[in-house]
Amino acid sequence: MTGAAGGIGRAVAARLEADGWAVHGVDVEDADLTTVEGNRFVVDAALERFGRLDAVVSVAGFQHVAPIRDFPEERWDALLAVLLTSPFLLAKYAWDALAASGDGRFLAVASVHGLIASPFKAGYVAAKHGLLGLVKVLALEGAEQGITANAICPAFTRTPLVEAQITDQAKAHGIPEERVLEDVILAPHAVKRLIEPKEVAAVAAFLLGPDGGAFTGAPVTMDLGWTAR
Predict the structure, then answer these.
(1) Nearest Cα to 116, choosing from 153, 87, 62, 163?
(2) Burial of 20 by CB count in 10 Å (0-12 exposed, 13-18 middle, 19+ buried)?
(3) Per the structure, how many domains does the chain have?
(4) I want to staple 120 with a disulfide (CB 3.0 to 4.6 A). Which of 150, 172, 211, 217 is the partner?
(5) Is residue 227 part of a domain?
(6) What is the pLDDT of residues 38-96, one digit of tens each?
(7) Is residue 159 domain-resident?
(8) If pLDDT is split at 50, 70 and 90, which confidence band does 212 have?
(9) pTM of whole model > 0.90?
(10) Are 33 and 86 in contact, with CB atoms under 8 Å apart?
(11) How big is the CA angle at 78 (ends 72 and 82), to the nearest 5 degrees?
(12) Residue numbers of the domain that contains 101
């Protein structure tokens, strides 16, 4: 799995290991997921380590907050590379191994921003929308080979990625930093709290476990009522 060193990724890795999975976790220091070679390395290393591959979990991501007129082209390219192209490459290189497992699972941590949009997040929102489309295609292609593909779509979660947005959100919205949590981050949540990483990890464990086999091609939404409006 990617993005395993912090935030949601670390919580998912810990939960899977507690459930008895052998986890090959990588993060930015282990592989460059903006490159073809980096993604191939992740799959090859897992296969070399374990001799088989039962699941791929794509969690790695980052955020950039800026108005469209100021959005740096290089940040756009990097966001799409990590959030969309990397999951595609991981699925491509792992496909045969997932099929050989007889019950292969592909799981991506997407976002509620795969379903709706927010201002100042052009790259992130575009990539997450694309990721949900990718998961649907993987589900259709994998059906006859026993491979399921799903995406978890959490709202704002208590992670370094969310905390790192506060300064940029304040600048983009023209408000003090101390108002960002209430006025921006929690504003769309019907339930006014952050999701905890362990909550996302519990959903991931379910989807990857024996009781999650009926889910495929699904955006599994956990958004504290955001999209109920």
Answers:
(1) 153
(2) exposed
(3) 1
(4) 172
(5) no
(6) 999 999 999 999 999 999 999 999 999 999 999 999 999 999 999 999 999 999 999 99
(7) yes
(8) very high
(9) yes
(10) yes
(11) 150
(12) 7-221
The residue type found at 105 is R
Residue positions annotated with a catalytic role: 124
Residue 124 lies in a domain: yes
Rounded to an integer, what distance in angstroms lies between the CA atom of residue 16 and that of residue 23? Answer: 7
Percentage of the chain modeled with pLDDT above 70:
100
Q: Which residues of 176-209 are buried (b: 16+ CB within 10 A; e: fewer)?
A: eeeebbeebbbebbeeeebbebebbbebbbebbe
- Domain assignment present for residue 41? The answer is yes
CATH number of the domain enclosing 153: 3.40.50.720
Question: Among 202, 194, 181, 203, which residue's Cα sits nearest to residue 226?
Answer: 194
- SS in 3 state form for the chain? CECCCCHHHHHHHHHHHHCCCCCCCECCCCCCCCCHHHHHHHHHHHHHHHCCCCEEEECCCCCCCCCHHHCCHHHHHHHHHHHHHHHHHHHHHHHHHHHHHCCCEEEEECCHHHCCCCCCCHHHHHHHHHHHHHHHHHHHHHHHHCCEEEEEEECCECCHHHHCCHHHHHHHHCCCHHHHHHHHHCCCCCCCCCECHHHHHHHHHHHHCHHHCCCCCEEEEECCCHHHC
